[in-house]
Design a protein that fits this description.
Shape of chain A: globular
Largest interface: A-B, 45 and 40 residues
CATH class of the largest domain in chain B: Alpha Beta
Number of domains of chain B: 2
Strand content of chain A: 15-25%
Largest sheet of chain A: 8 strands, mixed
Order of helices and strands of chain B: EEEHEEHEHHHEHEHEEHHEEE
Number of strands of chain A: 15
Helix content of chain B: 25-40%
Number of helices of chain B: 9
Strand order of the largest sheet of chain B: 6-7-8-3-9-10-12-11-13
Oligomer: heterodimer
Bound molecules: adenosine-5'-diphosphate, magnesium ion
Number of strands of chain B: 13
Strand content of chain B: 15-25%
């Protein structure tokens, strides 16, 4: 996927493959500009008109290729099969509409067979489920705190019980105790409704506490993917993942100094010939700059580095959801 | 540690009048920081961290209480002495971009405090000093003539640090200096701040909402809740023996980057943050506190020393230690 702007082409997503099983949560972790939001917007097909273009690959939803689906087909998919929520809840809320009406509106759009009575009842249920008393449904978004607004957004996104929820940094702007409440609620809803979740974050803690599987994204590529256990306890890691771990102060160990990754993200308007992390990588050899990294794998834990101690794997090219 | 603290506050207060009433943003804060030491201030948004930092260096007038600088009444300093003090106390902000003039180049930004405080006698020494400062904070010389918008967040923060360092300060308020940065860049800036402290014995008031950061950088930590200090202790002691129920809640709310069962998030605290407008007497956390009793909301809860330098404001400990009002 790339952005074609007037002055340059930004290569935002460069051959990303992963799949999310039913009821599973996959974390996409990476730093600012890694391409996480672009991946989600590509799946939703909400890329900016004419500027954001999917240039290759496939998106499969429940086995169906939706890469070429038209706008009307996508309208049916959005909200009903796949929902997306953003860091700022006000992106998704209408400031001049009562929150109850906003939930009912979504139901009306995607569940036209429901009667008015059923819709009202469902709306009350949804509000209670996220811990907001149904009496408050006549209030406007600004009457709720940031944490409550984000819970309302999640409720709206889940109103039609979509197969897949794309959550883009949903708790990044929240205070830590409020974040804990929202994460707990998301975990609960996932169990209850069996929704698959792609959770975008830059926080390893959030990933550890909410995701079954994790993909580490760097410069528009997956550099490592596996279960949450693989990521935190696995035998081998991508040097970028190691760098990220070295950068976060450890709550359990006293260290004098952190071990940051030197340097900066590469320029996204230039496609790296070899490994995109090579110029920041302490282990890089000449070959890393020339050739794309290998995919190494052990029991499904994949590391895209030619010097990984895992054995070489066949590279899979399909992007798949569910 | 030397005898007198570098900077000290006693019962410091800052109230704002709002349409809904008097907002107690900073309400009776007493603290002291010694040269070369870091006091971390943690708490959730709106608890008064930034206001405390600003009042301490007189960017905002205090409503009550005292600030002592090397034992002297800093709040009473007038024109000339205050100007002297501008060299000794500095501040670094969260959003370096908003605090940097977009029309000035990197070297112009760093030159400004040097000019204002007349630190360099001539152009040559000024250029030399700018080069030294850029080198100290890790900015490549070629960036001297670039503008802030051309640089990434980490480099902008380095400019903010260089600008603060230009006047050789003794005390810097670091107001969420790494909160907007990605972790790999955050680590670079934290290392830089710690190195600078080692070299120049600068004292920091380090404000953050990130507990892992505050633990890493602080010698002592103060936990704030709605304008008040609920707990204060040496860094290790606070994390080993958190005593106040709010500190406990804060610690257990941090998602730990580990999948081990013992690190699983538990005991999520209920309730929302409010603001301290016309606060009622007693503990401001009582409404959310799982241990609250009627004693908690009857009168002000003083800080009690439950272990050496470990202060807690909670009725649970009131009978056990020595009171400090
Ligand atoms: N509308 C746009 N036009 C041009 N470039 C864009 C646009 N949106 C994002 N980008 C660029 O695409 C890259 C990936 O961005 P993004 O997907 O937002 O990353 P992340 O969500 O991981 O921070 C970045 O280099 C970003 O600057
Ligand atoms: N200039 C002001 N006028 C009125 N209220 C203010 C002003 N500045 C801050 N406040 C209020 O004071 C409280 C503390 O704010 P602040 O010090 O910014 O908290 P923190 O930095 O911990 O997030 C908040 O309730 C905030 O809304
Ligand atoms: Mg993003
Ligand atoms: Mg603040």
């Amino acid at each position: 996927m790339e952005y074609r702007t007037d002055d340059a082409t930004v290569y935002a997503v460069n051959g990303v493959s992963f799949n999310v099983g039913k009821g599973e949560s996959l974390g996409l972790i990476g730093e600012t500009g890694a391409g996480k939001t672009s991946i989600a917007l590509s799946i939703m097909r909400l890329l900016p008109d004419r500027i954001g273009v999917i240039t290759g690959g496939k998106i499969l939803l429940d086995g169906t290729d939706i890469t070429a689906a038209g706008e009307s087909a996508m309208c049916d998919i959005r909200g009903e099969k796949v929902s997306m929520i953003f860091q700022d809840p006000m992106t998704s809320l209408n400031p001049v509409m009562e929150v109850g009406d906003q939930i009912e509106e979504v139901l009306l759009l995607h569940r036209p067979e429901m009667t008015v009575e059923q819709r009202r009842k469902k709306t009350d249920e949804i509000l209670e489920m996220i811990g907001i008393p149904a009496e408050r449904k006549h209030e406007y978004p600004h009457q709720f705190s940031g944490g409550m607004k984000q819970r309302i957004v999640i409720a709206i996104a889940l109103a039609c019980e979509p197969m897949l929820l794309l959550a883009d940094e949903p708790t990044t702007a929240l205070d830590v105790t409020i974040q804990a409440q929202v994460l707990e609620m998301m975990n609960g809803l996932k169990e209850k409704l069996g929704t698959s979740i792609v959770l975008i974050t830059h926080d390893f803690g959030v990933v550890a506490q909410t995701c079954d599987r994790v993909a580490v994204i760097y410069a528009g590529e997956v550099v490592e993917i596996g279960t949450a256990y693989d990521l935190f306890e696995g035998e081998d890691h991508h040097p970028y993942t190691q760098g990220l771990f070295g950068s976060i102060p450890n709550m359990n160990v006293d260290e004098e100094r952190l071990h940051p990754i030197e340097g900066l993200m590469p320029d996204p308007t230039i496609l790296a010939k070899g490994c995109s992390f090579a110029d920041r990588c302490p282990y890089a050899q000449e070959v890393c700059f020339r050739e794309k990294p290998h995919c190494r794998e052990k029991n499904g834990h994949r590391v895209f580095c030619r010097f990984s101690k895992y054995p070489e794997a066949d590279r899979e090219e399909d992007v798949e959801y569910e | 540690m030397s005898e007198t603290p570098l900077i000290e506050t006693r019962h410091l207060k800052k109230f704002f009048s709002t349409p809904k009433g008097l907002l107690h943003a900073v309400d009776d804060i007493s603290l002291s920081i010694f040269p070369g030491q870091t006091l971390g201030v943690v708490g959730e948004s709106g608890c008064g961290k930034s206001t405390l930092g600003r009042v301490m260096i007189r960017l905002l007038p205090a409503t009550g209480g005292e600030v002592l600088y090397r034992g002297e009444n800093f709040l009473a300093y007038n024109g000339r002495r205050m100007k002297e003090m501008r060299k000794k106390v500095q501040i670094i902000f969260q959003d370096p971009y908003a605090s940097l003039n977009p029309r000035m180049t990197v070297s112009e930004i760093i030159a400004e405090p040097l000019k204002v405080c007349r630190i360099c006698p001539d152009k040559e020494s000024m250029q030399k000093k700018i080069r030294e400062l850029m080198d100290t904070v890790g900015l490549a010389p070629r960036l001297a003539n670039t503008y802030p918008h051309e640089l990434d967040g980490g480099r902008r923060q380095r400019i903010g640090i260089a600008r603060a360092l230009a006047v050789s300060p003794e005390f810097i308020v670091c107001d969420e200096p790494v909160s907007a940065l990605d972790v790999s860049i955050q680590a670079q800036i934290l290392n830089l701040l710690m190195d600078l402290q080692d070299s120049y014995k600068i004292a920091y008031l380090f404000i953050t909402h990130d507990l892992s950061v505050v633990r890493h950088i602080s010698d002592e930590i103060m936990v704030m809740y709605l304008g008040q200090c609920v707990e204060k202790a040496p860094s290790q002691e606070l994390f080993r023996n958190p005593a106040h129920p709010y500190t406990e809640a804060l610690l257990s709310a941090i998602p730990i980057p580990s999948v081990r069962p013992e690190d699983k998030m538990k005991n999520v605290i209920r309730g929302e943050l409010s603001s301290p407008i016309n606060p009622k007497p007693g503990c401001r956390f009582a409404a959310r506190c799982p241990y609250a009793t009627s004693a908690c909301t009857q009168q002000a809860i003083p800080l009690t020393e439950i272990a050496p330098n470990h202060m807690v404001a909670c009725t649970k400990y009131q009978d056990k230690g020595e009171h400090h009002g």
